[in-house]
Amino acid sequence: MSDFNSINEAINKRAGRKLLPSIAVSVSLIALVWFALAYHRQFFAILVAIAVVLGVREIARAFSAVDIEISFRSLVLATFGLAYATWNGGVAGLAIGTAIAFPILLISLLRHGPEGFVKRATATSMTIIYLPFLAGFLILLARPNNGLARVMTFVILVGCNDTFGYLVGVLIGKHPLAPKISPKKSIEGLIGSVVFTIIGGVLAFHNVLHMHWWLGIPAALMIVFTATCGDLIESAMKRDMSLKDMGTLLPGHGGMLDRLDSVLLSAPAMWLALELVKRYL
What we know:
Order of helices and strands: HHHHHHEEHHH
Shape: globular
Radius of gyration: 19 Å
Number of helices: 9
Number of domains: 2
Strand content: under 5%
Strand order of the largest sheet: 1-2
Helix content: over 70%
Distance between the termini: 53 Å
């Protein structure tokens, strides 16, 4: 037991996070997603909206720390409005909902006057696109009758990228991938992400989606790219605002945004890939 504790502490020190709580939280989140999709897919849309609201709260607090104020209540209303429009109207609902919410949010900022308007408007615009809009593609993945298979395949791909990139990077990572943005992310970890995400993609496309197995290869490469970039984007935001994590909600992960970072950029890519496959193959 002492040897196990020593190994665990060494991993925690090198990774900068506690491994076991991180695994427990990840498994719990996957179980919650599966239950929502299996029981009633509309519950998944609500679950996504709640996760986004928590992310909006974190990013609002982060902006506030650098003297940029955005309206949390207005963005919460926009989040639930976009989730509802997306579930009922599909991609057209998401687009129209965003087109309506965006100018309303900017107009609402006028009550604060001209001072700091550009900062507030820029932060608000980034927040609605980065969170409710991109997360809307998760709801789009779940809308069809095979929504459970589509979302769980997505979870497998993103999970393989994050988990094995993390493990390989912790165990053998020596060459930083982007040292100024995320010092602990390594080239070896990226290679681990590519190899294991391809394996996961091939198995998921064949056994879960019941599609040609080889489609899992380009899908995996795409997810590794978008998930890694999503992680780096959030890391750049935190470094710019001098934050270690966006929050403390999820043990071993940090905040909700620290869990959503790789998902947000990957969801549109996965949705587009599956739409192209449905249309042309």
